[in-house]
């Protein structure tokens, strides 16, 4: 019976891991930030969000929510040249549907909000803002690039700073624009440990129970 239970758990974990919800982002060292050439659009904070999803080991018990963002996007000759997005970590909110008090020992989504904002993770008292600055934007080439995002148009690279560490992240995106608006969508996965986001000390069992992968979904709306 014990062997069957282990095999069943392994099968579930494999199925979850095969259910790819975001593109795996490529990461490198910090790069030079691109100059914002051309017309600068202002990110609409009330219409733009960064959705995050974290998991327990094996992709189980997803926890998800949103973070508000503002900033700018620059466009020249119908192409994005640069941009900067400020993520307000104090605005982090876990979706109530993601945490069931019945199965979480009475814990609520508000409890998770407080936990994530504490020094255990983002330490918002010291680091209230995370920043993403575009370093390059290239055309999406369907002959060599792949994406879970239908209609991807570009590959965006940028420096993502969380707490006191900056890592360059590259991911596919769908960019649409009019004379008055720019819309950027993307779904990608990052490894939280690239930014030193661990729960407790290295090797702590509490941290081991949490997946290293975090799914990020950008929905950026910018206007003249």
Automatic annotation (TrEMBL):
Segments forming domain Lipid/polyisoprenoid-binding YceI-like: 40-223
Source taxon at top rank: Bacteria
InterPro entries associated with the record: Lipid/polyisoprenoid-bd_YceI (IPR007372), TTHA0802/YceI-like_sf (IPR036761)
Gene3D superfamilies tied to this protein: Lipid/polyisoprenoid-binding, YceI-like (2.40.128.110)
Coiled coil regions, renumbered to chain: none
SMART domains: YceI
This protein's name: Polyisoprenoid-binding protein YceI
Native organism: Paenimyroides marinum
